[in-house]
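Researcher: First entry.
Model:
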Amino acid sequence: MESLRSRRFVPSVRLLALAATAALVLILAAAPAGAGSGFSLSGIAFSDTNGNGSLDPGEPGIAGVTIQLDNNTDGIVDSTTLTDGSGNYVLGPFFNTVRVRAVAPAGMVQTSANPADIGAQSSSVNFGFGSAISVPTLDAWGIGALILLCAALAVRHLHRAALARRSTRL
């Protein structure tokens, strides 16, 4: 009786080992090409003092800029990181196409173009930021003052026209 039980157990172990081997083969076959190494992204967020969108000598890095990563380019941010004290960041490794973007610091606008999606090799992606130009807006007092100015100019024009007519009659 003992030998009958052990014979049933051995085929079960062999079947389990065969299933595990098959699963491992399927996992390895589904892994992307080059899955052993991947690629990385690095760059700098910098103060674009001349506004040309490119990192030039003497333009300092900006610490604490949020770098966003969309790991499968579906438009959803999957993770974020902050630039270090010199404005540098490093992300990776990646094994599929990714999208990287930066969030402009308060009071600044991005001067560099967003890069295309990246998917094959390590890349350097820099993000430039310049000061936001503020355009003054008119509040209620400013609009009221503008209306009074226009009214005063209209009255002045009508007064001069009336004086000109009077002088031609005399």
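Researcher: Second entry.
Model:
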Amino acid sequence: MDSQKIAGLLAGLIGLAVLAVAFAYMPKKGADAAKPPTEKQKVELPKAPVASAPVRGPVVRDVTPEK
């Protein structure tokens, strides 16, 4: 066998493996598809206390090296 036949055989085997994995991860149809999705439970987080001073943007300070 020459290298082209071996490469073709390996490519075919890898292609079949990829195809098998794709079919394995495909969504199932039938009974599973008819089920409605379950509702997730909502969790309410406690509200943060309101600060007394209004919030301002970031403070930019001039930093100069000391001589």
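Model: Note on the second entry: The CA atoms of residues 51 and 58 lie 16 Å apart.
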